Each structure stands twice: as structure tokens, then as C-alpha cells.
Amino acid sequence: MSKPLIGVTTYLEPAKWGVWDMPAALLPAGYARLIQTAGGLAAMLPPDDPALAESFVARLDGLVIAGGADVEPVRYGAEPEPRTGPPARDRDAWELALIRAALASGTPLLGICRGMQLLNVALGGTLVQHLDGHVGGVGVFGRHTVKPVPGTRYASIVPKESSVPTYHHQAVDRLAPTLVASAHAEDGTVEALELPSAAEWVLGVQWHPEAGEDARVMSALVGAAG
């Protein structure tokens, strides 16, 4: 039996390795490792022409929108605040096109951190542009507990409160009309959201499962994609 092919979006960033110093398509190794642990095949998707998104998604069994740069506030009708990072316009356009293609085709979709936020924006929601108290330090993951909302898809995957790796700078403000919150932090921050339709496997998590050992969420995506 062939393993599901799971595409995961990447960063285009300056990078150094060996004698080289040049732009590279980057992805923390934890993403591929988690997909592999969950029984899938990982395929890296660097930013491309948004018009090609449907063609890319058609070749995938599942899609992961990875964490990374802030979503440009113009995408949800807001002005940038002082602590909002520089825009990544090409990545925004590409990943929004991938999300819309996955939603249109029914391809299982998991958004992680920025990916969850972009899913909310794609469907008409807004974001908090800066959130305090959800990191361990600069470049250091923190941890806190998230509590599932009973009756949701997320609660069926992780039925009890759990500790997760966190590096939250932005978060959901107004939830998109078609989405439901499926987990919260103790301070009320939306930590997971999803489409409530049982026929569509669409889930976003605010934390970084690729930075931990808990493969349950990714295993659920791979299972839906199989």
C-alpha cells in the first residue's frame, strides 16, 4: 500500500551551508520528520505562481501550511502595527491559493501556526497582530496547555488537555464565519480551529507539533489523506 503524499510549504530565505551563501527553500526538519513518523511521504512546496496552486494540490493527498512570517495585515483589512513583521507577499499569495485549492478539492488540510492564521484569513477572519506570553524567549519554544472543545474533530484526535510547544506572536482575533474554535489556551487564545463539516478534513493548530514528539494531529491528517 502506497503512503500518502503530503505537501508542506516552505520559506524562501537567505541561507549558509558549507561554502555557499545564497537564497534557499527552507523548512525545519521537524515537519518532514513528523510527516514520516505519521506514515506519510513529505514533499516540500516552495512559493510558486498562485495560478498553479490547483495543479499542485491535485497531485497531493494532503497539504500542510507551515509556520513562518506574519500574514500581511492588508489581507484582513488592517493596518500594520509596530510589532508586526515585514510582509512576505509572495508566500501569502501562494499559500492562500493553495488553501483555496485544497478547500475546493476536498484535500485534507492542516495549518500550523501561521498556517492556521492564514486559513482563518482566507475564510474571512482577522488576526491579533501581537500576543505576549506565549514564547519561551527569542528563538526558544515555550510550552503551555491547550484544552479541546468537546465534540470537535480536534477533541476526537486529542480528547484531553495537553501540553504543546508554543511560539505565538500572532493569533486569531475574529474567527472566520465558517470555522469553529476547537481548542483554547488558559487565557482564551484560540489554539485550534476547524471546519465543522464531517466531510471535509480541515484543521489548524496555533502551536508547533513539529517541535515536539506528539504525532497525533499529523497522524490524523495522514490517515485522512490515505
Describe this structure in words.
- By secondary structure, the chain is of the alpha/beta class.
- The protein has 6 helices and 13 strands.
- The strands form 3 sheets. A 9-stranded mixed sheet has the order 4-1-5-6-13-12-11-8-9, sandwiched between helices. Strands 2-3 form a two-stranded antiparallel sheet.
Topology:
Elements lengths: L4 E5 L1 E7 L2 E7 L2 H9 L3 E5 L7 H6 L3 E4 L23 H17 L3 E4 L1 H9 L4 E2 L13 E7 L4 H5 L4 E5 L4 E2 L7 E6 L4 E5 L7 E4 L10 H10 L1
Parallel strand pairs: 1-4, 1-5, 5-6, 6-13
Antiparallel strand pairs: 2-3, 7-10, 8-9, 8-11, 11-12, 12-13
Helix pairs in contact: 3-4
Query: What is the helix content?
Result: 10-25%
Distance between the termini: 10 Å
Number of helices: 6
Can you write the helix and strand succession as a string? EEEHEHEHEHEEHEEEEEH
Largest beta-sheet details: 9 strands, mixed
Overall average residue pLDDT: 94
* Structural class determined from secondary elements: alpha/beta
- Specify Rg, calculated over alpha carbons: 16 Å
- Overall geometry: globular
State the strand order across the main sheet.
4-1-5-6-13-12-11-8-9
Beta-strand percent range:
25-35%
Number of strands: 13
Low-confidence stretches: none
